[in-house]
Amino acid sequence: MWTEEGVEHWNPTSENFLWLLSWFIGTLGNADILATFIRNRDTTDACLINLIAGNILAILCLPINYLHHFYLDFGLGFPMEDAFLMSRNIATGVQLFSMVVYSALKFSNVKSSDNYEAINILPDLIPTALSTRHERGRCVTATRQTSVIWGLAVLCSLLTAFTSEASDYIYVDDVFVDDNAKLRTIFHCVTFCIIPQILIVCLCVLTALRRRDVADKTEDDGELMFWLTCAILINYVPFNTWILCSWSQGRLLTVAAVDFLTYFPLYSTACWTPPVVYFFKKAPKKQLAAV
């Protein structure tokens, strides 16, 4: 509910139709993309798989929150709430850190475009034994990327949980107790959400500048990275605007505002990234198949 003081007493179940529609679209889209990636593991980036996995975890947060409100009167409310908050924070971290690692890899590939093209044609030019060794190396690299992404997401979620206290909030008037609680929340948002976005934008810009000198611009998925970056940044516009305003205007920083502006980019990213990935990842394959 919006008032002159900001958002008050909001939760994801307040707009049932909207969130159920998002859950339905997000579930179908991410499940289809994940199934496509599993069938085409040789041409799929591990970071994209982790991004879709983060989207699925974000979608699963919605029924967990519904269960929390449903069982609140039966003594299971607080455990369900803890599970929901941990899942939400981990899903947010996986979404952002997947894009950070993905952008860093694409920038590295474009920066060393000669080596990147050599790697792409390597399996056709070397013996089977060496090709198998190269495939094992790809599996090890994918495992490392997955470990880094999920490790950072879990670490950020744990740090947020350990440094946030229930006493930080006054649930009666839905505001923070003091300025220290407010600054701590802003620090969490800046460290775990704003900084990854800055890294994604910087890597995307650097990759775009380097791609101008690359002859074949379809191999490095530069367009996919660009549109994924745009989708994530658009979803985080309300969140980033709120952070900037909250530095000086405490009335915008309510508990409900924190919840709303954390839920929105999480669910909207989970719903919008599958069409972007589906279009820009499958189009080159269809063109090559036609040739």
TrEMBL record:
Gene3D superfamilies: Rhodopsin 7-helix transmembrane proteins. This is G-protein coupled receptors family 1 profile domain-containing protein. The chain crosses the membrane at residues 17-35, 47-66, 86-105, 148-165, 185-209, 224-243, 263-280. Signal peptide: none annotated. Keywords: Membrane, Transmembrane, Transmembrane helix. The lineage of its organism: Eukaryota, Metazoa, Ecdysozoa, Arthropoda, Hexapoda.
